[in-house]
Amino acid sequence: MKTRSIFILALLTLALAIHSCSDDSGSGNTGPNVAPSTVLVDAPEQGSTSSFEVYMDWAGTDSDGRVTSYEIAWRSGPFDSSMFDSLDWGLTNLSESTFVVLADTCCAEGDSSTWKHTHTVFIRAVDDDGARDPEPVSRSFIATTKAPTTTITSPGSPVQSNCITFRWRGDDEDGEVVEYRYVWKPDNELPEGEPPHPENPAWSEWDTHTERTVGFRDEDNPARPYSFYVQSKDNAGAIETAFKRNENHKVFYVDQDRGSSPWIKISVFRGQSFDTHKEFIDSRSTVSPLAMETPINVRSGDTLSFRIEFREGDDASVANGIIIQENNGTQPIWWDPVDPGQTEALYPPLGGLFKAGSGVSTLHVWVRDDYCEFGSENVAYVKLSGS
Length: 387
Known about the structure:
- With 387 residues, the chain is mainly beta.
- The chain has 3 domains: 34-145, Immunoglobulins (Immunoglobulin-like), CATH 2.60.40.10; 149-254, Immunoglobulin-like; 263-386, Sandwich (Immunoglobulin-like).
- The protein is 6% helix and 46% strand.
- The chain contains 2 helices and 25 strands.
- The protein has helices spanning 2-20, 289-292, and strands at 37-42, 48-51, 53-61, 67-76, 90-92, 96-100, 105-108, 111-127, 137-146, 149-154, 163-171, 177-186, 211-215, 224-234, 249-254, 263-270, 279-285, 296-298, 303-311, 319-326, 336-337, 344-347, 354-355, 359-369, 379-386.
- The strands form 6 sheets. Strands 2, 4, 5, 7, 8 and 9 form a 6-stranded mixed sheet that branches. Strands 16, 17, 19, 22 and 23 form a 5-stranded antiparallel sheet that branches.
- The N and C termini lie far apart (134 Å).
- The model is unreliable at 1-27 (pLDDT under 50).
């Protein structure tokens, strides 16, 4: 019994001792908070060369609490102690990440296709009292990337036309192409056949388009040579700088007699469009422009329908728009799109009616292809004389 009493007394003494060591707030530390510390676990070596996609792993410790988050800041250039005065910190709960940084400075010594950029990263731990590591870890490295390349896919050979659609694609061996720009100029306005300086305003704005239609009205300079250049930019900011003929540089010639006018044929029927037994009356096409001036005789009040057949011009690859208008010879600004591979259309559309009137009326049809977006030469029409 005496032994049990001694044990209970010992427990009470221990409890009093523990209580006496605790403050009123319940915290086990009455001294000032100790700031956490930070360490880089995995990162490029100081001053080393790295990919522009760089993996980093970091950690933090806190002797009197716990690390709750981290702050990261980036600066351009090698480490300099003055950078601490103007760091823009960002908060994160992560302890590892793959960063995509810029490599937008041309070029690495002896290698005109490799772009680079020196970066310095700072990381500091934040503890549960909001204290930050007063001595953040830092690492400077050189990010590099290979510049992208561009290939003009259409037209495939030098052409001689007054309206051309250029198409291209970009490739990047260690990233992805994000934007393109182009320029075209008469060859005699380019020094030694080279493209304009990168800062020359003749270059287009950067965008994601992969085709451009260029039209020419150069009657005073027949067969004048032009050059079309296109270049790409990747997700590290590297820009293609080398140009090679028939890859990202295409030479072409202006010839006003070699347009790209689509062929159009308009057939006239008595009856509605969806009537399989409608009566054929006559047809007109762009093959014989003079014939289009001759009116086709119809009966006033008849229901008429039209079959429109078309194909792209000799230098084009697809027809991409059509407009049909009654008694209106003004080419519109907006075009109805044509499905890929479409070669004909009905007018009026199914369910619509066209009634022949008395006197002469005209149905105009324009078809646009990917070599020419404007001009009046790609129009066919039929004149109807109602009696």
